[in-house]
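Limitations
The structure tokens in this dataset are predictions for the assembled complex, not deposited experimental models. Users should treat interface geometry with appropriate caution, especially where small molecules or nucleic acid strands are included. An illustrative entry is reproduced here so readers can see what is and is not provided.
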Amino acid sequence: MSEPIIQIEKVHKRFGKVHALRGVTTSVRHGEVLVLIGPSGSGKSTLLRCINGLEHIDSGQVVVDNIPVTQSAANINAVRAEVGIVFQQFNLFPHLTALQNITLAQQVIRKRSAEESQRIARQLLEKVGIPEKADAYPAQLSGGQQQRVAIARALAMNPKIMLFDEPTSALDPEMIQEVLETMMLLAKEGMTMVVVSHEMGFARAAANRIAFMDSGTIIEDTTPEQLFANPREERTRQFLSKILH
Amino acid sequence: MPELNVETTARLPKRSTAGRAIPVAGLENMPWWVIILILAGLAATFVIFTSADYTSIITLLSSGISLTLYVTFFAYFFALIFGLIAGLMRVSRNPVLFTLATLYVEVIRGIPLLVQILYFFYVIAPFLADRVPEPFDGWFRSEVNEGIIALAIGYGAYLAEVYRAGIEAIPRGQMEAARSLGMSYVQAMRYVILPQAIRIILPPLGNDFVSMLKDSALTSAISVKELTLWTRQRSANTFRPLEHWTIAALLYLVMTLGLSLIVRYLERKFAIPK
Ligand SMILES: Nc1ncnc2c1ncn2[C@@H]1O[C@H](COP(=O)(O)OP(=O)(O)OP(=O)(O)O)[C@@H](O)[C@H]1O
Ligand SMILES: [Mg+2]
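Predicted assembly:
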């Protein structure tokens, strides 16, 4: 672990009257896994989406791999080439097979040949554990399988950073584990990850840091051991008691 | 799950909105009106072919039909392009593009198609023909071309709204996922949004194609010699309105029913597999 690859400084974001981010400052280093937790509406998704420019910040600064994330199209595309994102609702392209979902951007953006992109796609399907589903359409896959295809689709662009926005909360309980295992594998390989998730088992096993957000700010940012054993803030304590039962 | 919306909408061939959907399924679903129509058609054909003037009628048909189909196909082709451009402008965040497209859509939809055709024929086409350089001006002096462009402009406004609705029916997450993979707005439209939107709007597009075929009859008002004008002239010359107008009506019917079947076939062929 070395210098920060993501730097977030005094970021503010408003949606009309809603002040979703109120001066967030944090950073993530190469190979680090940061887990974000916090109550609904606390700004976790918004923060994540500011990192790859899906939301434009009102003030402050976000720098990813030395590229400032601004509204400029060149910068945003440069950042998105480095950053993969996995959504709660998978957002697979329903008109394409699993394989085509993974090859599309490789061919359009990375300009890889059909053969090369397919070879890479098959390797990635192998890696996420569903090589036999290459020709299935998203609607023919279970939620867990769809999410693993979505992870493979993001990995195919060779991102330096992976963002996850509640990747398991739309899944039936029996499918959560298979997705978490895939994410665990990535973490072990040294991928830099920012994960919004309330799967505390994952946080304990894979996270270097865990940050608690509330009302648009980071309240507490520490190691999982520290946070679970000895939360500093009363709000963190209350929130943890809710999600840890 | 947002994806589900896309699929359920696209997977509804049974409740198709295409103009005249004929259930091709089992005989038990056979609607009686189709059978009655077929019998009526056979009876009419019999009457016509046993009549003395049938050769005149046949000539009328071949020349009339070919121009009707020609006008319909080309007008629809251009309407698809105008509609796509205006539809994309209608979903654009650029206020200038949005306003221009909205103006086009609202103006056109408030004027009867027949008036649009006449306006184009009497006002716009002569204006353009006088200002376009030599070899090209003739293009604007052909009634057929004028009819095609006027129909295309009129239908483009309706198709723009069809495209817009189709694009807006695609969940926002699709655009976000495509953009997050590094695609530009245009690339995301081309590879992710439009392929899905087309599947959703195939039934209304097919519906409008059938309507276009019927509305091509309006170009007879600017002396395009398609099926309607032919029928009118021949029936007046021969004093046989019954045969001529019956066969013309039947031909329109056969063509619209045939097109509906093609549309239904395409709809199924492009449905997203489940
Ligand atoms: N596109 C938007 N338009 C308007 N308000 C928004 C938008 N996106 C988020 N918000 C608001 O910003 C605040 C933060 O939302 P955000 O989605 O970041 O919360 P979250 O922590 O991810 O919550 P959850 O756990 O429910 O996903 C909320 O009040 C939300 O209603
Ligand atoms: Mg969220």
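Some entries come with short summary sentences. For this one: Strands of chain A lie at 4-15, 18-29, 33-37, 59-64, 67-68, 83-86, 161-165, 192-196, 209-214, 217-222.
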